[in-house]
Design goal:
There is one protein chain. This protein has 647 residues and is of the alpha+beta class. It is 40% helix and 20% strand. The strands form 7 sheets. It has a 6-stranded parallel sheet with strand order 3-2-1-12-13-7, sandwiched between helices. The two termini are 50 Å apart. About 4% of the residues have low confidence. Bound molecules: 5'-O-[(L-methionyl)-sulphamoyl]adenosine (MSP).
Length: 647
């Protein structure tokens, strides 16, 4: 198995970390956690980019030395990574001596070999991006990267002979399909290269910018910040310091970057490495942008999402989960708090949290808190475990192909199958009927599903999955020692394990902005089950059984009911739904008194997204037949426990 070395960009120390930075770093962390759990030697490098004009300006504005300014601001990144559970093996700062020394040595060697030369330069400089552009690069006379004004500069500078590697690089990209990923980014780079490639200006005169690494062969200049920064990927793993360490990790398996810094990584960096006679990284992977709603996230628009705040509000694991499931690596994704809350409640609170609390509660109640042996499994139980096997294969494939969202989706699909399995096997009624053999099989199988979900999701939600594993009676370090591949071992690990309750694994959260208020409008937005009126009124579109199957109708028992103050049509109900209690707001107050409601077994939509009605959260919708002036609740014809499937 090859060693695995993953890097993130080193972030500008001036920036306040936002979800863009958090995403790249969490993605790297998840890949490294998976890799380590497979026993693969793994190295994870992140850090900060501390030289350049922006830092010099910011420090001057604060009347501080550049170094003290960096020492203060770097902490924001370090604290955030700690909070987010990032397991980087090293944190590199470009102001560290070892890094500066390596950059200096690289510069000297390239200069000695004629790869760097001095020339008169006339170009257009973008202060924001700290990059030079030629006349033809400009778009409408402005910076092609950020659209800001550029300044024309004529000065003597040092250049790296990048242009001579153009043909080689085109050929390398064409013959190494994994080198730049996704493939359309490789095409983008090829398009850029085919337009021609100049030499790279790698110096800045100190008269203009002094905060940088001094050129070893000319003390009047400092090194261009990108030339300095890119070298972190090798100085961070021992280059020119510890050749053994360097050999162990280089070439990197993945440079994870955002699409904003593709050219520097797919053109500057490979040509620099080529000039240094070093092997190319295996894959440069560029992910898309996080947008706020539909807008680009930017300081000036004031729509930057603060990752620290999100993690504090909703929990680190939920935040990690959301970022990884919401973005298809390579494409842009949109962040809104509503979408976050929706996904949290449906995937984590409803599907996974609910499964865990139901299964564990039933084991506590019916099996003395000890996971029973399964005995001979029936087809439904084997089918459920086969779903988890498929999820494991899918996750392995997803990791190899950088499609983590799909891998996680497959695991959550299996979790939903486990919930359906519980509804169809109805262990609560098996318990009532005293069918202990079947009950043991069902509870064991569902607990096994939970164990597999915990193993598969541990790198994404390490804290919460540890809680789940310990609630299943598995030792504290169970997940650290059991990787995906341990799931191919089919021996029984759960029988006899003592479970402990975990009701609050993912407590439901309220949406910040209220959703449609009236109970009638509370139907699922895209629910196919609601007959759709077409242009010709009264023509009802037919739906197929699968569409109907998406709506989960279940029996529920009304435990408590009370009037909603100031709303004469509404009752607030507490209902029991197979081991779980929920709150529901229903527009039935004109037809039923609270006393009449209590004790009834009603039918509710169990998988409806929660909504706020008059500021009160409603976690579902009850069914009733209604005609002019009359409303009758749908109930069942006889005794059946709550949580039973209707359909
Ligand atoms: N310092 C350079 C990188 C040098 S690497 C040798 C830099 N720093 S940065 O602070 O601007 O961070 C850029 C990186 O942050 C992006 O490549 C991406 O990883 C992440 N993101 C910043 N904003 C982003 C979004 N809005 N969306 C997604 N990620 C983006 O560039």
């Amino acid at each position: 198995m090859d060693n695995f070395y993953v890097t993130t960009p080193i972030y500008y120390v001036n920036d306040k970390p936002h979800i863009g930075h958090a995403y790249t770093t969490i993605l790297a962390d998840v890949m490294c956690r998976y890799s380590r759990s497979l026993g693969r030697p793994t190295f994870f490098l992140t850090g900060t980019d501390e030289h350049g004009q922006k830092v010099q300006k910011a420090a001057a504005a604060r009347k501080m030395s550049e170094q003290s300014h960096c020492d203060e601001t770097v902490v924001r990144f370090q604290e955030l990574w700690k909070k987010l559970g990032i397991t980087n093996d090293k944190f590199i700062r470009t102001t560290y001596d070892y890094h500066k020394k390596v950059v200096s040595q690289v510069l000297q060697e390239l200069y000695d070999r004629g790869e760097i030369y001095r020339d008169e330069y006339e170009g257009h400089y973008c202060v924001g991006d700290e990059r030079f552009f030629t006349e033809k690069d400009l778009v409408d006379g402005k910076c092609p990267e950020c659209g800001r004004e550029v300044v024309k500069i004529v000065e003597s500078n040092y250049f790296f002979r990048m242009s001579k590697y153009r043909e080689w690089l085109i050929d390398y990209i064409e013959t190494h399909p994994d080198f730049i990923q996704p493939a359309f980014r490789a095409n983008e780079t090829l398009g850029f290269l085919r337009k021609g490639l100049g030499d790279l200006c790698i110096s800045r005169p100190k008269s203009r910018l002094s905060w940088g690494i001094e050129l070893p062969f000319d003390h009047d200049y400092v090194c261009y910040v990108w030339f300095d920064a890119l070298i972190n990927y090798i100085s961070g793993v021992g280059y020119l310091q510890n050749e053994e360490e360097f050999k162990k990790w280089w070439p990197a398996s993945y440079h994870l970057i955002g699409k904003d810094i593709l050219t520097t990584h797919s053109v500057y960096w490979p040509t620099m490495l080529k000039a240094m006679n070093l092997p190319m990284p295996k894959t440069i992977f560029a992910h898309g942008w996080w947008l706020t709603g539909r807008e680009k996230m930017s300081k000036s628009l004031g729509n930057v999402v603060d990752p620290m705040q999100m993690a504090e509000k909703y929990g680190v694991d939920a935040f990690r989960y959301f970022l990884l499931t919401e973005m298809t690596p390579g494409q842009d994704a949109s962040f809104t708090e509503e979408a976050f809350v929706r996904r949290y409640n449906s995937d984590l609170a409803n599907d996974l949290g609910n499964l865990a609390s139901r299964v564990i509660k039933m084991i506590v109640k019916n099996c003395g808190a000890v996971i029973p042996e399964a005995g001979a499994m029936d087809d439904a139980s084997l089918a459920l475990l086969a779903d988890f096997d498929r999820a494991r294969d899918e996750m392995e494939r997803a990791l190899a192909e950088m499609k983590l969202d799909q891998g996680i989706g497959a695991v959550m699909g299996a979790v939903r199958s486990a919930n359906r399995y519980l509804e169809s096997t109805a262990p609560w009624s098996l318990a009532k009927k005293g069918e202990t053999g079947k009950l043991a099989m069902v509870l064991h199988t569902a607990a096994e599903g939970l164990r597999r979900a915990a193993v598969l999701l541990a790198p994404v939600m390490p804290g919460k999955m540890d809680e789940l594993a310990s609630a299943l009676g598995l030792g504290e370090n169970y997940l650290a020692d059991h990787a995906i591949d341990s799931l191919s071992d089919k021996s029984d690990v759960l029988s006899g394990k003592k479970v402990s309750d975990i009701t609050g694994l993912f407590p439901r959260v309220m949406a910040e902005k209220s959703e449609p208020a009236a109970p009638e409008k509370n139907a699922p937005a895209k629910s196919a089950a609601a007959p759709v009126k077409t242009a010709a009124e009264n023509v009802v579109e037919l739906i197929d059984i699968e569409e109907f199957g998406r709506v989960k109708l279940v029996t529920a028992k009304v435990l408590e009911a009370e009037k909603v103050e100031g709303a004469d049509k509404l009752l607030k109900l507490r209902i029991e739904l197979g081991g779980e209690t929920r709150q529901l707001v229903a527009g039935v107050a004109q037809y039923y008194t609270p006393e009449e409601m209590v004790g009834k077994t009603i039918i509710v939509v169990g998988n409806l997204k929660s909504a706020k009605i008059r500021g009160i959260e409603s976690q579902g919708m009850l069914l009733a037949a209604k005609t002019k002036g009359k409303l009758k609740l749908l109930t069942v014809d006889g005794d059946i426990p709550s949580g039973a499937t209707v359909g």
